[in-house]
Task: structure prediction
Amino acid sequence: MAQTVWTNVAEGKTIAYPDTVVGTDSHTTMINGLSVLGWGVGGIEAEAAMLGQPIPMLIPEVIGFKLTGKLPEGATATDLVLTITQMLRKKGVVGKFVEYFGNGLLNMTLEDQATIANMAPEYGATCGFFPISQATIDYLTASNREPERVALVEAYAKAQGMWLDPENDPVFTDTLELDLSTVVPSLAGPKRPQDRVLLTEAASEFAKSLAGEFGKGGEASKEVAVAGTDYSISHGDVVIAAITSCTNTSNPGVMLAAGLLAKKAVEKGLKVQPHIKTSLGPGSRVVSDYLEKTGLQPYLDQLGFNVAAYGCTTCIGNAGDLLPEINDTILKNDVIGCAVLSGNRNFEA
Result:
């Protein structure tokens, strides 16, 4: 497990140094949320590192991203990271480091930081780093790191100038700024993570895409009967709904919110339509544990969000097949269906 600060004995002296990691998963950057510098590499680079070889790199530009204020009620870390992704893609940060700073970090949990760091590949940066702060210390303590190690992390960070200082802005190659209070519920689509759409404008944006990109504006209300069933589907109908991806399914804030929403839906007698394929891919077995212990998993199960797997699922195309009759209807009638997922990747296939 990450320690954030390691120690090593060399020439009779104990040396402390920051934790780093490279991994063959592109979302290795999630560890940046714990103030550990890391990013994804190729298999050969990873093997070389395991054999004791250094990872060669050019010193990158570092883009500072200042976060101020506090997220409003109803907005989540997911809405925030989609906003950040839109801003950074517009800026252009490929091959660069991004470091977050500002008093907004004081109002964020470490899990929210991890959500933002996770999507560094989507906003194009090599990494999205967060400085060591009280959130880091609280997480290390809650996850049962040794008290001596936790104390070392705090003392080392403060002595080395690596502790979050919300009153003083570091010097970067360039900076961006976002007031967290301006973040609103959003989704991204229809194809790219940076194509952020306000939730309130989702229907109108889909209508624009249907007409402009697919040339089917005149067919918006067309319904097609699904053979062998008593229902029909039309353009814009959701055919896949997936709670998935490492971005969101390791964040207890949004996972418990999903469970509570499912509970309310079941209690009000709501049901998922038969043409929608549902799935749940928890970020770890810990997530399943707290969904079970809070009594929320049964409600998710009743809506069809049963645990499908622990790992990459719908966001990398591992959604599995739709029902044959749904699949045939879509293909034969060129229906433009939709997938709604909590995943980090919706790149065009």
In short: Residues 252-267 form the longest helix (16 residues).
